[in-house]
Amino acid sequence: MQYTISKEKVRLHMKKHGITTQKELAEQLGLSKNQLSMLLSPNYNPIKSNALKLCETLDVSFDDIAEQMELDLGIDEQSSKKVIYKKGKKENQDDSNDFVEVRNIKPNKEYKVLELFAGAGGLGLGLEYAGFESIGNVEIDKHACNTLRKNRPSWNVIEEDIEQVTEKGIENYIDAPDVGELDLLSGGYPCQAFSYAGKKGGLQDARGTMFFHYAKILDKLKPKMFLAENVKGLVNHDGGNTLKTMLDVFSDIGYIVKWKVLRALDYDVAQKRERIVIVGIRKDLVNKEGLEYFFPKSYGYELTLKDILKDVPESVGTNYPESKKNVLDLVPPGGYWRDLPDEIAKDYMGKSYYSGGGRTGMARRLSWDEPSLTLTCSPAQKQTERCHPDETRPFTVREYARIQSFPDSWEFDCSTGNAYKQIGNAVPVNMAKAIGLSIVNTLNKLN
């Protein structure tokens, strides 16, 4: 029993949806061009062997047990608001009034920023590029603190548990400005569930979380603006209650808040990384000065790995065990486990093979003609593989750093594994710069 996908029928449906090229279709599906070509190949059977065995066992054809489903290409035919892809450029027609072009923005003065949960400095460095001077960087991880000190000896690196900082008072760690005078508080606190058992509401619901300490320091310093970034999953975490509580707390403390999920790909980063960005302006500045915040507008183009991985300095990196290398040798650029012979795929994936679609991160080899998938804390995890396009190996530390848009001069003086962790946890530097410039755009209106 053999099934194939009819190219002619696909072309008819493409025309119906206004899709003119296979490249455009691949982008709508979230596939590489190679993956789409494989899908449309006459030698490709879209029905995997376990489904065929089910048909054989029941003595039926696949059509007897299958239902036809409309192919969802992510296009709302009733809506004029859609994403347009053209020659590597992307234009999002939604919410254009919420964005501002930031590439020509210059700070009117050097603004001051205090960063909590500073990590390896991705956010801090991007804000520095945008025109902010650091007055303090709070971070508990000793290796990340070493990275900060090595690269920015002048920064006030506070290697301390945030709970201790809150308890002792942030003013004992920094040259504290008067209340209300700090320009920006920034940081990416971990996404944690709140306890609603007491139903006290507001900040009391957040006790025991890192957000609680961020909010306490925000309340104490009352900066003109704040920036909080987090994983995209925060949007739907605990049914949206986590984000709602955060927004309510920020409002109670005295801030007008906006949030959006932004793509690193829109800001000179060759990576499909998405983060929620939450920005607040103190209410008195909104009411008296008419301040308003706008998110950074997309640069209008997307970088690929071939754009950024040229002449990368040699550096350490991890290697695959021989058994894994032998499997990944069979995967073409842009491919993943479905490109493997069926028996090898079964053996490599184990139980995951029978869990159905998805799992495109397994046995994944990236392509020069696409951006990287989101980097993780380890470059060789089975579920989130990120194999080099040409060589069968993970990316080196310096390649990892390039993908996160760290400059080659930013050193990670630690073990290889810890370097990957620091880089994978970071905010991409160029994305942070774009966000920083959008905040400078607002602060400039005060000066």
From TrEMBL:
Q: Which Pfam families does the record associate with it? A: DNA_methylase, HTH_26
Q: Which residues form the active site?
A: C191
Q: Which family does it belong to?
A: Belongs to the class I-like SAM-binding methyltransferase superfamily. C5-methyltransferase family.
Give the Gene Ontology MF terms in alphabetical order: DNA (cytosine-5-)-methyltransferase activity; DNA binding
Entry-linked InterPro entries: C5-Methyltransferase, C5_DNA_meth_AS, C5_MeTfrase, C5_meth_CS, Cro/C1-type_HTH, Lambda_DNA-bd_dom_sf, SAM-dependent_MTases_sf
Reaction(s) catalyzed by this protein? a 2'-deoxycytidine in DNA + S-adenosyl-L-methionine = a 5-methyl-2'-deoxycytidine in DNA + S-adenosyl-L-homocysteine + H(+)
First-tier enzyme category under EC: transferase
User: EC number(s) for this protein?
Assistant: 2.1.1.37
Q: What is this protein called?
A: Cytosine-specific methyltransferase
